[in-house]
């Protein structure tokens, strides 16, 4: 999550080269599955049908695709979406 936040900060201020490097680090990092934290209003014994992930791979891939697309690397942008942003 820290790498993603650094990438977002660089992306926000316009340092897209550094942002792309950090987004790529997020995509290269494999973390364990951590369940999404429960809200205080949710019941303790509530069974969730789908396991939730706190993975930021899709968000990082989407933002990286935006950087590639704006730089004219359309094939690379399409490939990132194809690899990481499937339903």
Could you list some keywords that capture this structure?
87 residues; mainly alpha; Serine Threonine Protein Phosphatase 5, Tetratricopeptide repeat; TPR-like_helical_dom_sf; Tfc4/TFIIIC-102/Sfc4
Give a short synopsis of this structure.
With 87 residues, this protein is an all-alpha fold. The protein is 59% helix and 0% strand. One of its GO terms (biological process) is transcription by RNA polymerase III.
Work out the radius of gyration.
Answer: 15 Å
Q: What's the helix count?
A: 4
Helix fraction, binned, reads 55-70%
Q: H/E series, N to C?
A: HHHH
Q: Name the CATH class.
A: Mainly Alpha
InterPro entries: Tfc4/TFIIIC-102/Sfc4, TPR-like_helical_dom_sf
Structure overview:
- The protein has a single domain (2-31, 53-84), classed as Alpha Horseshoe (Serine Threonine Protein Phosphatase 5, Tetratricopeptide repeat).
- It contains four helices and no strands.
- It is globular.
- It has helices at 2-13, 16-28, 57-71, 74-84.
- Helix 1 runs antiparallel to helix 2 (16-28), helix 2 (16-28) runs antiparallel to helix 3 and helix 3 packs antiparallel against helix 4 (74-84).
- The protein is mainly α and 87 residues long.
- The two termini are 21 Å apart.
Topology (SSEs and partners):
Blueprint: H1 2-13, H2 16-28, H3 57-71, H4 74-84
């Amino acid at each position: 999550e820290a790498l993603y936040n650094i990438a977002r900060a660089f992306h926000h201020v316009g340092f897209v080269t550094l942002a792309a490097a950090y987004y790529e680090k997020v995509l290269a990092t494999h973390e364990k599955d951590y369940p999404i934290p429960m809200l205080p209003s949710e019941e303790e014994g509530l069974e969730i049908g789908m396991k939730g992930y706190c993975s930021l791979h899709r968000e990082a891939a989407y933002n990286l695709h935006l950087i590639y697309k704006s730089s004219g690397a359309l094939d690379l942008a399409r490939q990132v979406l194809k690899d990481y942003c499937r339903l």
